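Today's session is about reading a structure prediction critically. Students often jump straight to the picture, but the first step is always the sequence itself: look for stretches that repeat, for charged clusters, for runs of hydrophobic residues. Only then move on to the predicted structure, which in these notes is written as discrete structure tokens rather than atom positions. Here is the chain we will use throughout the hour.
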Amino acid sequence: MNKPTNLLLLLIQLSIISCGPSTTEREKVNSQQPNSQDLKESLIQQNRQLIAEEIELIDAYVERHGLALDTTSTGLRYKIVEKTQGREVRLMKDVTISYTASLLNGDLCYSSDSSGQLSFTIGQSNQPSGLQEGILKMKEGEKAIFIVPSYLGYGITGDGICIPGSTSILYNVKLEKVSLQ
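Below is the predicted structure for this chain, in token form.
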């Protein structure tokens, strides 16, 4: 290339650079943007707040209905309302349940009356972890109540059909059958 072309390219580069923000302006913009650690801590704090609010709603429901429920270390609330001497449930066992799943406001979402009994393998199912945890506390033939917080149920997205995001679920369950194998 000749000298005028080189000079022209140099002038174009300088004009482009000079049009952008100065180093001080870039530092100011960068200092105003949260870093990934700040963002992570903010999301964790927001999640804790949502969980605390949901637990308050569950506590109010339990008190309003006079329920004496036990609470697991994960936050599942449960009560075995009819006990039996039936077979115990273990991981990897197939179970069949009759159930209703409702929101705490009373709206019925799902029921074995309309959709039939539900059968699945404990620990290898896409059923909510809170439901599976509760069933592990039952014996064949028993009836139980579970209140499954959203983080043990369908999470912040819900199920896309009936259960909204960040919503607790009230299950009334009868453990109809536990597989022999």
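Discussion point for the tutorial: Residues 69-178 form a domain with the Chitinase A; domain 3 fold (CATH 3.10.50.40).
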